[in-house]
Write a structure and sequence with these properties.
- The chain is mainly beta and 208 residues long.
- It is 12% helix and 35% strand.
- The protein is built from three helices and twelve strands.
- Strand 10 and strand 11 form a beta hairpin.
Length: 208
């Protein structure tokens, strides 16, 4: 038997599911000393998620966004990542595009809140020797230097399709969600900078 007094009513919260449990166990339920007759079917329905809850869950279902980079620096970005998801490589931006294409996919949900994303990208490179063949010819490989930042998402449209990452010359990074693909924010000549500026690593050895 479950008894709830008036004195303790503020300390107890009796849910519909509790009533159902009591009825299923053939218990008598009293509130303030008065027997309560309830409809089991209506109470069971009250214990199930309602339509509004289902709609709420659906509204925060992750959507897949295309990742697009914009490279306003004076050197190519060989790789960049958004929360460890590869965004491809970027040439220098032009007045028409950001220097690369779109890459699938970044899963986004409003339920994640306005948390920053981790952006990791190459900021330089050097060449190091790997071996020599029997004729003495050297073979080289490239070591990339990376930079990592936590970048806030600047825009949250209601129906996003793209996650844009904008790389500026001062290593500043801006991230935005957009419904349509944006034009470059900076109008720069595509021929700027040094397109092949990889130098040899110290002592021609791979950095630790």
């Amino acid at each position: 038997m479950l008894n709830v007094s008036r004195r303790n009513i503020g300390q107890w919260r009796i849910s519909k599911c509790l009533f159902v449990s009591a009825i299923m166990n053939n218990s008598r339920v009293h509130v303030w000393g008065t027997p309560v007759v309830v409809s089991l079917l209506s109470l069971v329905a009250g214990c199930e998620p309602g339509d509004s809850e289902n709609r709420s869950v659906a509204s925060v279902k992750p959507v897949s966004l295309s990742i697009v980079g914009f490279n306003y620096t004076n050197r190519p970005i060989n790789e960049f990542f958004v929360n460890e998801i590869g965004g491809g490589n970027l040439h220098l931006s032009s007045p028409a595009d950001g220097g690369g294409g779109s890459v699938c996919c970044f899963d986004y949900s409003p339920a994640y809140g306005k948390r920053p994303v981790e952006i990791r990208w190459t900021v330089g490179a050097c060449l190091y020797n790997t071996r020599r063949d029997r004729f003495g010819e050297k073979f080289t490989d490239i070591h990339y230097y990376f930079r990592t930042v936590q970048a806030p998402i600047a825009k949250y449209p209601s129906n996003p399709h793209f996650l844009e990452v904008h790389f500026y010359p001062d290593n500043k990074v801006e991230v935005a969600l957009t419904e349509k693909l944006s034009s470059p924010r900076l109008i720069l000549a595509e021929t700027r900078g040094n397109l092949d500026s990889s130098e040899h690593c110290e002592n021609d050895k791979k950095p630790n």
